[in-house]
Structure prediction request, 189 residues.
Amino acid sequence: MYIKSIIKATIVYILITSVVSAQAESDSLSLGSSIDLPDIGEPYLAEKLGDWSLRCVRMQDGNDPCEMNQLLLNAERQPMSEISLFRLPAIQGVVAGANIIVPLETLLTSPLIISFSAETRKQYPYSFCNEVGCVARIGFTSEEVDLMKNGSVANITVSHISRPNQPITFGMSLKGFTAAYSRTSVIAR
Prediction:
C-alpha cells in the first residue's frame, strides 16, 4: 500500500512537472514563417484555374485583392496579348472591367474586336500605349460575362500596322473562366 502511494505521488509529480516544463518551452519555440509569401504590396500567383491565373497583391490585413489573367497566344503558340480582368460593383450595367494589352505595332485606328459568340461582337478603342504595349480598357455587362461563363473561346481580332487589311484573330480560352471570376475581387471605383 505504501509503495502504491509512492508510485501515485511520483506519477503525479512527473505529470505536473512535464506540463509546466512544456508550457515554459512552448513560449520559447519558433513557429517559423513561410518563405513563399511575398512582401506586403507585392503581387503573387495565387492559383491556376483552367487557362486563367488568379493574381493577387498581398495586403497587411490578409484581404488580398485578386484579378484574373491570361496570356493569349496565336495559332503558332506565340504570345499575342494579355488580359487582366476584374469585377466591379454593378453600376450602369458594367459588372467587370479588363485591360487588354497588345503589341506596340498594333494599328490603333482599327479597334480591338471581341467575338463573345457568333451573334455577339463588340469593338473597343485603345486607351494608351506604353513601353509594354497598347492597352484597351474595356467594360463587360452581365450578359457578356454570362456568355464567357458558358462559352469555350472568345475571339479577339486586332490589326497589325504593316498589314491593316489582314486582321489577326486569336482565341481567349474560357476554360476555368467561371471559377476564376468567382474568386476575383470586386474593385471599388
Q: What stands out?
A: The longest helix spans residues 2-27. Helices lie at 2-27, 142-150, 177-183. The two ends are 80 Å apart (CA to CA). Residues 159 and 172 are 16 Å apart (CA to CA).
